[in-house]
Amino acid sequence: MADDVFSQIEPFKIKMVEPINLPDKKDRIEHLNEAGLNVFLLRGEHIVIDLLTDSGTGAMSDRQWAGLMMGDETYAGSRSFYKMEAAIQDILGFKYVIPCHQGRGAENVLHTSLIKDGDVIPGNTHFDTTKGHIEHKKGRAIDCTVKEAADPYIDLPFKGNLDLEKLESIYREYGKERIPFTVVTATCNSGGGQPVSIENMRAVKKLSEKYGIQVCLDGARYAENCYFIKMREPGMDKYSIKEISRMQAECFDMMTMSSKKDAIVNIGGFIGLRDQELYDKVKNLAILFEGFVTYGGLAGRDLEAIAVGLYEGIQEEYLGYRIGQVKFLAERLKEEGMPVMWPPGGHAVYLDMKKFLPHIGPEDLPGPAFCAELYIESGIRAVEIGTMLNGRDPETGKNRPAKLELVRLTIPRRVYTHRHMEYVVQSVKKVWERKDAIKGMDFTYEAPVLRHFTAKFKWKN
């Protein structure tokens, strides 16, 4: 990448803008109280900078918008499906493609096809919807991430890697009869957006083949993972992002993707498969849950935008800007003395609540408390990645303590400038300056599954 310029400036011009509004502090407090202190339940119009998620929140390009106008809305056999299918086959190499309305739709279809009561699914810090779908099918997720992932400050290039010894111990204990597949999330979201190396993925594939177990890629941010491989893994800098994408995908029997991330669209996802027998099994459930196999719950225009966005998402200039903006925010927060997870990941900056709010224990919800205070301070919305997201053990009903108590500042693609990021830095710093006065929280409402989306809280006395 010439002169690394796109880690410093945006590789695009702004053609259209959307006004944002900052309610005054009194109104922000009122809005938060109406939302039960849960920032998930705030209205978008009441937020000035939204760092809740990078899922479906990116800005599409002029070519994607042009694609919307060319979308083929044929119910079965849409031209736009075949364009999307060809892009996935070209970039990722999966022969069989099933579109779904988004990533969790893809997980629901695939997991319903493969998981039975009592199964276990090893992986590297399963994300919330992945774990939720596994447990909904009466399975159990087992975390096999390397032990270094639990240290937010150790500076290692691939903290999303799987621990091969632990993974093999799970294979030996349960066998292929109870392990329908292993899932590798790249980048590893709940582990801090940390990448997984090609070397590790190849080793996981080899080990899994030894035990007759399939491997699934959760590839919502596969392109960002490819960029880290190119930048950090010895000998990989000579390959293009597309070449690395194919190498990465070759380590997997199947793939689910929320296209709302690295395909830079507002809705959509897919399942990628290699085996026709499994495809025939999965496609029937896809028709039941999502829609016919050539639209999968999506309009033709969405399929068209995904086909374009998949290619834009692997452009090295774009990825240099994308990863560079995350790094900029992380470095600025670190300069101001904030406890930031290191090294910076691909799509977000993660703050360590154990150091930010050490007086608030996991049971008192430090992450949600910080998110509420950040909104009151600045109108910025962030999201907790910790004990609340981890949920309760379905057997004991007790909270599952998270290895890391984090708050994620998630940066949408092609939406905010560096000046927006500087406002984030100053706002977090102001919360830091009064952190000792921040109280913990108690639940007033808690759903049995994926509770963080709809929970409501009250401040502790």
Notes on the protein architecture:
- There is one protein chain.
- By secondary structure, this protein is an alpha/beta fold.
- It folds into two domains: 2-54 and 320-459, Aspartate Aminotransferase, domain 1, CATH 3.90.1150; 62-312, Type I PLP-dependent aspartate aminotransferase-like (Major domain) (Aspartate Aminotransferase, domain 2), CATH 3.40.640.
- Helices cover 40% and strands 13% of the residues.
- It contains 16 helices and 14 strands.
- It has helices at 25-34, 62-69, 79-91, 103-114, 128-136, 164-178, 198-210, 222-232, 241-249, 276-289, 300-312, 316-335, 353-356, 366-378, 387-390, 418-433, and strands at 49-50, 96-100, 120-123, 140-143, 181-185, 214-218, 254-258, 269-273, 348-352, 380-381, 383-385, 406-410, 441-445, 456-459.
- The chain has a five-stranded mixed beta sheet with strand order 2-8-7-6-5, with helices on both faces. Strands 9-12-11 form a three-stranded antiparallel beta sheet.
- α1 packs antiparallel against α14, α8 crosses α9 (241-249) and α12 (316-335) runs parallel beside α16.
- The longest helix has 20 residues, at 316-335.
- The radius of gyration is 21 Å and the shape is globular.
- The model has no long low-confidence stretch (mean pLDDT 95).
